[in-house]
Amino acid sequence: MDLNPFRLDIDDLINEFAEGNMTLLADMKSIWLSKKFSCIFEAKPNKKLGFFMQSLYAHCIGYMTSTDSISHRLGGLYSLYCLYETQPFKPPFRIYICLREMKRLKELVIDAKNENIGVVPFLVNNMLERNLFLYGAVDLKEGSVEERVNELIQVQNARIQHANKKLFADTQIERYIHMDMGKELEVDSLKKMSKDYAMTKELAIKGFFFFLMPI
After folding, report:
1. Residue 91 to residue 207: CA distance in whole angstroms
2. Contact at 8 Å (CB) between 190 and 197?
3. How far apart are alpha carbons 165 and 181 in whole angstroms?
4. Best CA proximity match to 135, nearest among 90, 160, 101, 108
5. Is 200 helix (H, G, I), strand (E, B) or coil?
6. pLDDT in tens, 47-75
7. Using N-to-C axis directions, what is the helix angle for 25-34 and 4-19, rounded to 10°?
8. Using alpha carbons only, how large is the chain's radius of gyration in Å?
9. pTM to 2 decimals?
10. Exposed site from 46, 55, 102, 113, fewest CB < 10 Å?
């Protein structure tokens, strides 16, 4: 699967945003709509959709965590958010992010607050509260997107195994038939059986909300 055309499209989108020294989400939405950028999903592959989405996310995260101008970094954040919101997949693919990248996101929030770009703390707060992120151990600089996806597959498999154990261990199986099984399969359940995941998530968001307080 050749993802270079998709990456180039994202490059063009973010560069146009940055060349105008733009800093607002509304600016990115305006460019997004003018380019009809959601059409990027019309060329999506027929398989490996997780790999496809995580590749797009990773490219945006690369801008977001870079040392480029704040417009480039914000362009990466806004593009990441817009990709998540406009994806056609149900349920939507959440955004894989590692600890290093989460720290860089926190730094971006601080820089945005110093520049009086008030939309950024509220946007990131919204993304965190809606649980848009999946926290992992594989670093973008140290591992490939394929490694990211493999880790997510392992998470999913562990979640399914956990659900099966719960089903066969509980004598009141009817409770799982009539109640919300989705709640049992959420990441909160997985965290209890995965110390690595729980520690990674705790470290990722520890102290984060302090920087998301309203200006």
Report:
1. 29
2. yes
3. 13
4. 101
5. helix
6. 889 889 999 999 999 999 999 999 999 99
7. 130
8. 18
9. 0.72
10. 46
